[in-house]
Design a protein that fits this description.
Elements (H helix, E strand, L loop, with lengths): L38 H12 L6 E7 L10 E2 L3 H9 L5 H10 L5 H7 L8 E4 L5 E2 L6 E6 H6 L1 H25 L4 E4 L7 H15 L3 E2 L2 H7 L9 H5 L11 E2 L2 E2 H11 L7 H13 L5 E3 L5 H18 L6 E4 L4 H18 L9 E4 L5 H10 L5 E4 L1 H4 L10 E7 L2 E2 L16 E7 L5 E8 L11 E4 L7 E4 L3 E4 L2 E5 L4 E2 L7 H14 L2 H4 L9 E3 L1 H14 L6
Parallel strand pairs: 6-7, 6-13, 10-11, 11-12, 12-13, 17-23
Antiparallel strand pairs: 1-5, 1-14, 2-4, 3-5, 3-21, 8-9, 14-15, 16-17, 16-20, 18-19, 21-22
Helix pairs in contact: 2-6, 6-7, 6-14, 7-16, 10-12, 11-12
The protein binds adenosine-5'-triphosphate, 1-O-pyrophosphono-5-O-phosphono-alpha-D-ribofuranose (PRP), nicotinic acid and magnesium ion.
Length: 551
């Protein structure tokens, strides 16, 4: 039978009545579907079904233990795609046929049931995309039947881990350059496959980049695209005679550029490069931005650029600038800005000193901090490899853990204290002082009264009983909100944010966090705390479940 995708076919081919979310768009990647999972989800679900436990009520939570990039914060991202995944969650007949072949001993009724499974029975609470988050706290809480909630694990983690990692990486690059520099994502060629590249472009933008070189991301996601040119373009020209015409707007651009070249005393610059720049100016007179390091930045690229730029001014155009792709970016940018300023004054072309200097070449967060420290004249950075591959930390460790079953809180123990899970369905709050600065995050167990503004509250470290503090928050913000309710129309009003809204949210969120927590080197840990009641429950369950050793 043909792959019917999301058409709501059951295993036996009967049509179900359409769900309220049946028109929700598909996830960005066509791979995102129930089959994009680990086989152990299916093995568990088959066992639950055999034991008639598949309808038990379960609560799972998504969290990471350690913040990435040796930092103390992360940015939540990927919820937008999670919601589309939930709305389209349905095994097709063809997929069920495949699974039948993999589990030949399973009863036909199992596949009939699997064919009816969707997210009707599921509720999801989550942080909004773009929210600042910290270790150990629930980013997403999934409530539903044991079987369906279990089936969501792997895909959900896949949809959250990389987006949150890249959004965090992008936000860190933004913090490194400040708000007045332009950041372009150039990573398409180096990203981990097409899906990795699309996610990288999307979530770099969410994290604070201004644009991308990725044309498909521009087309599908509305992100601003831009492009300069590569070395190949310059290499492809040998001399001025390969130009189709010397003219632009009826005037001889070649003559003018050559006149400036000799007046400025640049007679040694590479003529092929000059021809390439003239040809580029003829095609892009209003967007004239040249890569200047193909042969020699200071002795050829910049002189050739300046000769053509001055000629363009004479014809009434405003050139854009240059791109540096090698060498000492701090030194070169300052040297070139000074040069632009001198020529601007010699030729009464004040705009020349304002030309944009773009830098690329293996840039990462450390390079950006080093450049700021040294001082530079760069206006825009193109960042590829380090950004999209998250070379400094290639994975975020979000996990998906069962915290409650049939109303009973559950715990998972570990020899490593930090790996012990926090039991029970939990609520998460952020406490602020009177200046709007975040003081601490606070988790309570379900059923406790919500904390109140102006009330003195004991905030405890979950594992270290000695660490505790009283906090009287001026403002309290509950961080988890209902984003999906299968009984009430699926995606909840206000839960789907645009990319632009989430990007704006990141900027606002970072302003709420203390600078020493956001700091690049040795940041202060942000406090993630639990209530007295949750602390007691954790330690009680710990004792109850840990066998007493024998000496
Ligand atoms: N002033 C600077 N301070 C710190 N790092 C810099 C500075 N200028 C450039 N960098 C970084 O130093 C590294 C230089 O890399 P590399 O030595 O491969 O380039 P290059 O020799 O300049 O160029 P290429 O080999 O492509 O001609 C890059 O990661 C670049 O971003
Ligand atoms: O360095 P990244 O941060 O990944 O940025 C993207 C790089 O991609 C381009 O060239 P490419 O690296 O393909 O060739 P090049 O090194 O010879 O310039 C561009 O010139 C940058 O150098
Ligand atoms: O437009 C650019 O300059 C660009 C785009 C992708 C990779 N490197 C450079
Ligand atoms: Mg390179």
């Amino acid at each position: 039978m043909a792959d019917t995708g999301n058409d709501h076919d059951t295993a036996v081919g009967a049509k179900l009545s359409p769900k309220p979310w049946s028109n929700t768009p598909s996830p960005m990647s066509s791979y995102v579907r129930p089959m994009l999972t680990d086989m152990y989800q299916i093995t568990m679900v088959f066992a639950y079904w055999k034991q008639k436990r598949h309808e038990d009520r379960a609560v799972f939570e998504v969290f990471f233990r350690k913040t990435p990039f040796k930092g103390e914060f992360a940015i939540m991202a990927g919820l937008d795609e999670v919601l589309k995944y939930l709305a389209n969650f349905r095994f097709s007949s063809e997929e069920l046929d495949y699974l039948r072949g993999q589990i030949p001993h399973a009863e036909e009724e199992f596949f009939t049931w699997l064919g009816t499974v969707d997210c009707s029975c599921v509720k999801v609470y989550a942080l909004q995309d773009g929210t600042t988050c910290f270790g150990k706290e629930p980013l997403v809480r999934v409530e539903g039947s044991l079987a369906v909630a279990q089936l969501l694990e792997t895909t959900l983690l896949n949809l959250l881990n990389y987006p949150s990692l890249i959004a965090t990486n992008a936000a860190r690059h933004r913090l490194a350059v400040g708000s007045d520099k332009v950041l372009f994502e150039f990573g398409l060629r180096r990203a981990q496959g097409p899906d990795g590249a699309m996610s990288a472009s999307k979530y770099s933008y969410l994290g604070g980049f201004d644009g991308t070189s990725n044309v498909l991301a521009g087309h599908l996601l509305g992100i601003a695209i831009s492009g300069t040119h590569a070395h190949a373009y310059v290499q492809s020209y040998v001399g001025l005679d390969s130009l189709q015409t010397p003219f632009l707007r009826g005037q001889n651009l070649v003559e003018k550029a050559l006149a400036y070249r000799s007046a400025l005393g640049y007679s040694e610059s590479n003529v092929g490069e000059l021809a390439a720049f003239i040809a580029y100016a003829q095609s892009w007179p209003d967007n004239f931005l040249c890569l200047v390091d193909t042969y020699d930045t200071l002795n050829s690229g910049v002189p050739n650029f300046m000769s053509v730029a001055l000629a363009l001014y004479d014809l009434g155009y405003s050139p854009l600038g240059i791109r540096l792709d090698s060498g000492d970016l701090a030194y070169l940018s300052k040297r070139i800005r000074k040069w632009f300023t001198e020529v601007a004054s010699a030729y009464s072309r004040p705009a020349l000193q304002m030309l944009r200097i773009v830098a690329s070449n293996d840039i990462n967060e450390d390079v950006l901090y080093a450049l700021s420290k040294q001082g530079h004249s760069i206006d825009a950075f193109g960042v590829g490899t380090h950004l999209v591959t998250c070379q400094a930390q290639p994975a975020l460790g979000c996990v998906y853990k069962l915290v409650e079953i049939n109303g009973q809180p559950r715990i998972k123990l570990s020899n490593e204290v930090e790996k012990v899970t926090l039991p029970s369905r939990k609520h998460l709050y952020r406490f602020f002082n009177e200046n709007g600065v975040a003081l601490v995050d606070f988790m309570t167990r379900d059923g406790e009264p919500a904390p109140k503004e102006g009330q003195r509250l004991l905030c405890r470290h979950p594992f270290d009983s000695k660490k505790r503090a009283y906090v009287t928050p001026t403002t309290i913000v509950p961080l988890l909100s209902l984003v999906w309710d299968g009984q009430k129309g699926g995606i909840q009003p206000g839960a789907s944010r645009t990319l632009e809204e989430s990007r704006t949210h990141v900027m606002g969120q970072l302003k709420e966090i203390r600078e020493d927590v956001l700091r690049h080197i040795n940041p202060t840990p942000y406090k993630v705390s639990v209530s007295e009641e949750l602390h007691a429950l954790l330690h009680q369950l710990w004792e109850l479940n840990a066998p007493v050793g024998q000496l």
